[in-house]
Amino acid sequence: MMTEEIIKIRERAKIHEAWCLPPDTLVFTPWGLKEIGDLQYGDLVLADDGSFTKVKAVLQRPYHGRLIELRTGFVRRRILITPDHYVLAIPNLRVMQKDVWRKKLLNGELHLSFKWKKACELDTTDFLVIPCPKNVGNLPEQLDLRKFSKRKLVVIDDTYAFHKYDHFKREFKYKIELNEEFYELLGLYLAEGWIAEHKTSAHVYFALGKHETDLAEHISKLVESIFDEELHWCNHRTCIQLIISNSTIADFFKVFGRRSEDKGIPPPLLPLCDERAMSLVCGYIKGDGCVHSEVPYINMSTSSPMLAGQLYLILISQGILPSIDIIEPSTTFSPSLRRFLVGRHKHYNIVISGEYCDKFPFNIRKRKAHKGMRGIVYNGFALIPIYEITEREYDGIVYNLTTDSNTYTILGGVVHNCQIKHVLCAEEHGIETIQKLAREMNEALDRGDKDIATLKLNQIQELALLTDELRRIRQELVDMIFTFISEEKIRELKGGEVNVHKEKEEIRVKGSGEDCGEEIQLFEEYKAEE
Q1: Contact (CB, 8 A) for 106 and 439
Q2: Cβ(250)–Cβ(194) under 8 Å?
Q3: For 233, phi and psi rounded to 5 degrees?
Q4: Cα(24)–Cα(328) distance, rounded to whole angstroms?
Q5: What local confidence, expressed as pLDDT, does residue 492 receive?
Q6: Cα→Cα distances 175→46, 97, 137, 384, 495, Å
Q7: How far apart are the C-alpha atoms of 374 and 368, rounded to whole Å?
Q8: Residue 111: what pLDDT?
Q9: What is the 3-state secondary structure (H, E, C) of 96-128?
C-alpha cells in the first residue's frame, strides 16, 4: 500500500512545475541568452553543475501578485521572481563593509556552503551563483571545409583544393586547424565581419578604421596562415575593407552569422573549458572592444543575445567574472546625417574590470585592488553578490521550465522548480521511512522484543503526523494552482470576458508539440474528487 501511495503522490505531483518567472527572463543556453518564453521542448539550458540539461516542458500561467526584485552585482538587469521560488545561494558569506570573506576564501580558511532558499528569504549577505559551464561536446582539433561548401571542389591532396570553375585554379586549405590563430580570427570576424553573397559567389568582409592598419596587417597574416588565402584591401573614405574572395571560406563563416544581430558560435565549436577561448575573446576585443589603458577596464558590445551569452559563459569558464548590461533600443539624432536614427536591437555591454584585466595581453595600468562587496569565480562557480531586495506588483503571464536536472540558470543565478517539488520530496521520504520502521517493528515482534517494537511504533506515529502535515501543505499548494487557473480567475485578472473553450487548455505545455494528456487526466481526476 505504501508503494502505491508513493506512486499516487508522484502522479499527482506532475503538476508541481509551478510557474515563477516573467516571460522576458533570460536563460543561459549553448546558443547564448534566450528569453524563457521563447524556449521550447528539447532545448538545452545550463544546469547547476555546469552541464547543459534538456528542457522537458515549458509551462505558463497567469499570475497576479508580488514579485521579489533583486539588484545584484555584475548583472545590471534586475531579477524578478515569485517569492516562493527556490534559488541556489551561499548564505551569510559577506561581512558588510569588509573584504574578509574574500581573503579567507582564497586562503582556504573558508568553505562554501550552498543552500536552496526561497526568493523571499534571501538577504543582502547572501550570494547567488552561476556555474562555470562545461563544453557541450569534445571540441574538434581540425575541420573539413567541404562539409560547409556549396561549391564543387577539386581536391589536390589531403589539405589543399581549388574551385572547379575557378579559371585561375587558386589553391586554398580545405582542412584547417582549430588552433589559437583560428579562434583569434573568429573573434575578429564576430566583431568586424559580415558576409556578402551573390548568385555564384560569396565573400567575407572585415571593416576597420582608417587608423587600424596594424590590425589589418594582422588579419591578413591570420588568413594566410589558416587558409593560405590572400586577403584583398580596399581603402574607402572612412574605413579599410578587407575581403576574402573565396566562396567556400564564406560558406564556412556563414555558420557564425552574417549580420551583427545574429552572430554566434555553434555549440560544438564553442570553446568553454579550453585555453583557445582566451584567443577568441582577445580577437573580439581587438575588433570591437575598448581597452582603457589608464584604468583596468575592458568593454565589449554586441547586438546579438546569442553572442553576448556565449561571451559571458566563456569568460566565467576562464575564471573571469564580467559585468553585463542590457541597453534597450533608443532613438538618437545624428548631426552628420541630419536625421533621427531609430534603434532596432538591444545592445549587450560586457565589462571586464579590476584584476581580471591582468589575464589579457593588453597594456593596462595596474591599480590597487578594489575593496568591497565584490564577486569572484571560485571552485567552479561565479559568486554574485546581492545588493538590494525589493518587491514589485505584477499582473501577467509567468513561466517555468521542467528539465532533466530540475534546475536551470538565468542571468543572475540558478533556480529550481517551485515549492511543491520540495514538499513532495519530504513527504515521499517520510513514507519511505515509515515503511522501513514498520519492517523493523515486525522483525522485533517476531523476535519477541516488545520494547524495540514499542519504540518503533512511537516513531512511526510521530513521523505519520509529520507526513500528514506535509500532505496537507502539498494539497493546499495544488489546490491554489488549480484555483488560480480557473476560468473565473482568468476573467478576474483580465478584467473582462476571456474565451476559454475548455479547462483542458488552461494547463498546457508550450513547444512540446504534444497534448499534455497526463496533466489533463490529473486535472479531470482532481475535479472528480472534489
Answers
A1: no
A2: no
A3: -100, 145
A4: 13
A5: 46
A6: 32, 56, 20, 42, 63
A7: 14
A8: 84
A9: CCCCHHHHHHHCCCCCCCCEEEEHHHCCCCCEE
Say how far apart CA 141 and CA 132 lie, in whole Å. Answer: 22
**Contact 34/44 with Cβ under 8 angstroms?**
no
Contact 365, 296 (CB under 8 A): yes
Cell matching residue 190: 564576430
- pLDDT reported for residue 475: 63
pLDDT value for 525: 44
Residue 290 parent element (H or E): strand 289-292
Residue found by looking up cell 585592488 in the block: 369
Task: Say how far apart CA 418 and CA 480 lie, in whole Å.
Answer: 13
User: Could you tell me the sign of the dihedral formed by the alpha carbons of 262, 280, 242, 254, in that order?
Assistant: negative
Contact partners, residue 522, CB within 8 Å, separation at least 6: 11, 12, 14, 15
The DSSP code sequence of 237-303 is SSEEEEEE--HHHHHHHGGG-SSGGG----GGG--SSSTHHHHHHHHHHHHHEEEETTTTEEEEEES
* Cα–Cα distance measured from residue 256 to residue 481, given in angstroms and rounded to the nearest whole number: 43
User: 61: helix, coil or strand?
Assistant: strand
Cβ(86)–Cβ(20) below 8 Å: no
Q: Which amino acid is at 39?
A: L
Residue type, 8: K
Count of CA atoms in the C-beta half-sphere (13 A) of 242: 27
Report the alpha-carbon distance of residue 496 to residue 398 in Å, rounded: 20
Does the CA dihedral 500-501-505-507 come out positive or negative? positive
Tell me the one-letter amino acid at 178: L
pTM for the model: 0.76
Q: Which residue is it, cell 575557378?
A: 166
Give the SS3 label for residue 47. coil
Q: What is the pLDDT of residues 327-364, one digit of tens each?
A: 888 777 777 667 776 667 888 999 998 888 888 988 87
Strand pairing class (347-353; 160-163): unpaired
Q: DSSP 3-state assignment of 302?
A: strand
At residue 216, the pLDDT reads 94
Beta strands, E only, 369-412: 376-378, 381-403, 407-410
Give phi and psi for 99, each to the nearest 5. Answer: -120, 25
What φ, ψ does residue 41 adopt, rounded to 5°?
-55, 130
Q: How far is residue 114 from each of residues 90, 91, 353, 527, measured CA to CA in Å?
A: 5, 7, 27, 39
What are the tens digits of pLDDT across the range 245-277? 999 999 999 999 988 889 999 999 999 988 899
Tell me, rounded to whole angstroms, the distance of Cα 172 from its chain centroid.
38
Mark the ranges of the chain whose per-residue pLDDT is less than 50: 1-2, 6, 9-17, 370-373, 419, 480-530
Q: Which amino acid is at 78?
A: R
Cα gap 399→462, rounded to integer Å: 38
Count CB-CB contacts under 10 A for residue 217: 13
Q: Are 386 and 59 in contact (CB under 8 A)?
A: no
Contacts for 303 with CB less than 8 Å, ≥ 6 apart: 260, 261, 345, 346, 347, 348
- Percent with pLDDT over 70 in the chain: 79
pLDDT at position 221 is 95
Lookup: cell for 519 = 496533466
